[in-house]
Amino acid sequence: MDRSGDMLRVAIWRSRGDGGGFAHYDVPREASQTVLDVVTYVQRRLEPSLAYRFACRVGMCGSCAMTVNGVARWTCRTHVARVADGDRLEIAPLANLPVVKDLVTDMREFFDKWARARGRFGGARTRRDDFARVDPASPARRAADAGIECIGCGVCYASCDVVRWRPDFLGPAALNRAWTLVNDSRDTAQRERLAAVAGDAGCHACHTQGSCTERCPKHIAPTAAIAGLKRATARAAVRGTLGAEPR
Amino acid sequence: MRRASDWRAHRHPSWWAFVAHRVSGLALAIFLPLHFLALSTALRGDAALDGFLRYTERPLFKVAEWGLVVLLAVHLAGGVRILMIEFAPWSGLRKDFIALTCGAGIVAGLAFALALVH
Amino acid sequence: MKRAAAATAAGRSDAAGRVLADAIRQGRRWYWQRMSAMVLALCVLVHLVTIVYAVRAGLSAEAVLARTRGSLAFGAFYGVFVLACAVHVPIGLARIAEEWLGMAPRVADAAASALAWLLAALGLVAVYGMVAG
């Protein structure tokens, strides 16, 4: 059914002082309209002071993630027709992150945790060494490949209740990235990484709620990565190598 | 300020499985010490245990017992699902196990109810 | 596992060592909760079947105690069951206390340890009562 010509009743979160509330706008429906189209319309035609983030608008950068009708999504890849509640749409910033203004969240804590989880490759080879040989069909490489497409959009972080309950929790994205590196045979920072992701700030606080895996727009499964980290850290702890300096 | 997710973010089976597992675990944890205390009346002889057991013949008790049996079965099945996710090769969020958990609760509930009225 | 963990943590500066020691302790807790869960999976399955069977036969002291009195098998099985519960239950409750009641981790852990001893004591006394009487 072509709904263009109808009006959408859109509630958009606006910052006010230390808090905020929903402001209401009427936006004409178009065919194949995305939620990002709606936000753009409001900012260009109705409310120039509305703050929001986007970049590629084609589902590659992850900048446009917001909470749409209560669920974290990429707004550029979310068709209004699929998520509108009748003619109502509610758009808010991502949960679990400090709100800078309106629909924009401060992503620093998200990326800081990425770094704290040792989500950075550490190698020993130089350009003078031969290429590393990695069998793409090996279980470790397959495990890594399953998680490397993460673009750091924050949807999983915003969807996770453990992030809300435990401010220190590194979160699904950081732990997923750590797992891809744990499985990277070229990486030499394994001991520090496993120490970084162990404990209640790390993988052991995950309760397998699965919201991250359910909501990831790239269909990555942080739940799988975290399960792997639990096994890897337990193994290292038993062997006494967790965090130990290499002899 | 930060915004928190509300119930709309929780409308997926894996989340309900988590809630069921946690709530059932909590209920069982509260019940367990009472269960141990009740059974230790046997220390004071058969008559003491018998006295307690007759007390549990009341309908309210039987309903509570039935509830605990169902919660135990749910917690068991849900727990096996967690063990599968954490230790077995990855195969998604094991939603088939969620269905199995519901089934386990139903089977346990039916078996216990039938045993009661037998 | 404890000695190896202490050795790795000892080689670090104070704050880092404490963080690492905490992480190792929490990881160990996860491990024991999962191990006790595996034991409990078997025990609970047997227990559920037993309970349904016992309820059918009628719950009276004579009926129950006739089977448990002097039974080494009963004592061994339920002794293991009690110990697995004593490990498994407090760890789960401590998580709930931290996450939903905002309890401090060290307080939750201390309470969990106390509860573990309490459950073990109460449970083993109950098993003893039903076996030895």
Please tell me about this protein's structure.
The complex is a heterotrimer of chains A (247), B (118) and C (133). The model of chain A has no long low-confidence stretch (mean pLDDT 94). A five-stranded mixed β-sheet of chain A has the order 2-1-5-3-4. A two-stranded antiparallel sheet of chain A has the order 6-7. Helices cover 34% and strands 15% of the residues of chain A. Chain A is of the alpha+beta class and 247 residues long. Chain B has one domain (15-117): Up-down Bundle (3 helical TM bundles of succinate and fumarate reductases), CATH 1.20.1300.10. The longest helix of chain B is centred in the middle third of the chain and has 29 residues, at 59-87. Chain C is mainly α. Chain C has a single domain (32-131), classed as 3 helical TM bundles of succinate and fumarate reductases (Up-down Bundle), CATH 1.20.1300. In chain C, helix 1 (2-10) packs antiparallel against helix 2 (14-57), helix 2 crosses helix 4 and helix 4 (72-100) packs antiparallel against helix 5 (105-131). Chain C is elongated, with a radius of gyration of 19 Å. The interface between B and C is large, with 38 and 36 residues.
Number of helices of chain B: 4
When the domains of chain B are counted, the total is 1
CATH class of the largest domain in chain A: Mainly Alpha
Report the helical percentage of chain B: over 70%
Q: Average pLDDT value of chain B?
A: 92
> Which topology of chain B does CATH recognise?
3 helical TM bundles of succinate and fumarate reductases
Question: How are the elements arranged and paired?
Answer:
The complex is a heterotrimer of chains A (247), B (118) and C (133).
Chain A: E1 7-16, E2 19-28, H1 35-46, E3 65-68, E4 71-74, H2 80-83, E5 88-92, E6 99-101, E7 104-105, H3 108-116, H4 139-145, H5 155-159, H6 161-165, H7 172-182, H8 190-197, H9 211-215, H10 222-239
Parallel strand pairs in A: 1-5
Antiparallel strand pairs in A: 1-2, 3-4, 3-5, 6-7
Helix pairs in contact in A: 3-7, 4-7, 7-8, 7-10, 8-10
Chain B: H1 13-39, H2 46-55, H3 59-87, H4 95-117
Helix pairs in contact in B: 1-3, 3-4
Chain C: H1 2-10, H2 14-57, H3 61-68, H4 72-100, H5 105-131
Helix pairs in contact in C: 1-2, 2-4, 4-5
